[in-house]
Specification:
- The chain has about 375 residues and is of the alpha/beta class.
- The chain has one domain: Alpha-Beta Barrel (TIM Barrel).
- The chain contains twelve helices and 13 strands.
- The strands form four sheets. The chain has a seven-stranded parallel β-sheet with strand order 1-6-7-8-9-10-11.
- The longest helix is centred in the first third of the chain and has 22 residues.
Length: about 375
């Protein structure tokens, strides 16, 4: 198992050049080769940023994705017509005058219409690119299979998939093949993103999932079984499961503590690292951590990616100590509460704020756990290597 006390969820802000280039490529005004070069450079910059702040865990910043889950939709046929709003729809809430509430309607034609067929791997190319550019722990993120319940429609999907269960079974198979290929290529840290579990905590967001035909309890039971099937049995691989309550444009979707889902998710999912949103009161208390079994770590998402304010390190240390009342300190870690850019929209903070927050993750881990420098340097004198 990866025993690292400083982590992050995966996505980083997209540079303006990359956002513009994506639009230009979609309109046919620049070549795919030109766009690919800009995209590659954005990934390389994201890797350098993570290394420079001292993170052991490195992702590609999800620079190539429209959304944290879009790689699946881009890699399979049968999902019908979709756009970015297929991943963003809902009643979003902002906590400031600068970022207010926003409603994005569910696309009218959304729904799988044919049997799924995979045309390419989701993230294998991304992993190979990442593997060649850093020697640190490479993390790849994938969507939890039952998150795709959003793409099944009782009206439009029955000819291809008579039931939601039929549809999600094929999603599981495709994601399981993806994981097996990633492991074959040397992946040692794979994270499943599962915000829909926390959305079951809030009646306002739970209603949609129950309207698809399953109760909240059924989603938890079958969802965890599907997650475990995707993770399979790979003893040399650490799997993470990330839970949050929505994260787009510095807005959120749901509120509620983990009490209702803690026993089911924390105890029964096969993931060894639980990455849990905990940056404000909407996430509730740390008491549900008492449900975490002894073979799992919890990564506390104490640092918000939604606002630029930098959390005082003393405050973070205090909250970590508070969490350690419910599980041992040595099995806790710290991260931001979610990605900085769960889609191309990104949160309303500046790149400099993002860098400061990533540095704060590392600094807090060093203060609380004495986390070593990833390159073997003395953390108090970076020019001296530790022998």
């Amino acid at each position: 198992m990866i025993a690292c006390h400083a982590d992050h969820i995966g996505s980083l802000l997209r540079p303006s050049e990359l956002i513009s280039a994506r639009e230009e490529a979609a309109a046919g005004r620049i070549s795919r080769a030109r766009f690919k070069a800009i995209e590659d450079r954005a990934v390389e910059d994201a890797i350098r940023l993570q290394e420079s702040v001292g993170l052991r865990v490195i992702t590609d910043g999800e620079q190539r994705r429209l959304s944290f889950q879009s790689r699946f939709a881009e890699s399979v046929s049968g999902l019908g017509d979709w756009d970015l709003n297929a991943f963003l729809w809902g009643d979003w809430h902002g906590d400031s005058s600068a970022v207010g509430d926003r409603t994005i309607e569910r696309p009218a034609g959304l729904g799988v219409v044919e049997k799924l067929r995979c045309s390419r791997y989701l993230s294998v190319e991304d992993f190979v690119f990442l593997r060649a550019r850093t020697t640190r722990i490479r993390k790849i993120t994938l969507p939890s299979p039952s998150l795709w319940a959003n793409f099944w429609s009782a009206q439009r999907s029955r000819a291809a998939y008579p039931t939601l269960e039929n549809f999600l079974a094929d999603v599981v198979d495709l994601l399981r093949e993806e994981v097996a290929e990633l492991v074959q290529l040397g992946a040692t840290y794979i994270q499943l993103d599962a915000p829909h579990y926390a959305l079951l905590l809030d009646p306002a967001t739970r209603g949609f999932y129950e309207s698809q035909g399953w109760s909240a309890e059924r989603y938890l039971e079958r969802g965890i079984e599907m997650d475990n099937a995707v993770m399979g049995d790979f003893p040399d691989v650490t799997f993470g499961l990330h839970l949050c309550r929505g994260n787009q444009g510095s807005r959120w979707l749901a509120s509620g503590g983990y009490e209702r889902i803690a026993r089911s998710v924390f105890r029964h999912v096969r993931a060894q690292r639980l990455l849990l949103e905990y940056d404000d009161a909407r996430s509730g208390s740390f008491e549900p951590l008492k449900e975490v079994p002894e073979d799992k770590w919890v990564v506390l998402g104490l640092i918000t990616t939604k606002r630029s304010r930098l959390e005082p390190i003393d405050e973070l240390e205090s909250r970590i100590r508070e969490a350690s009342r419910f599980m041992p300190l040595e099995r806790l870690a710290i991260s931001p509460q979610c990605g900085f850019s769960s889609s191309v929209i990104g949160n309303a903070i500046a790149p400099a704020d993002q860098e400061r927050k990533l540095r704060l993750v590392v600094e807090t881990a060093r203060r609380v756990w004495g986390e070593d420098d990833p390159d073997g340097h003395d953390v108090h004198n970076p020019t001296r290597r530790v022998v």
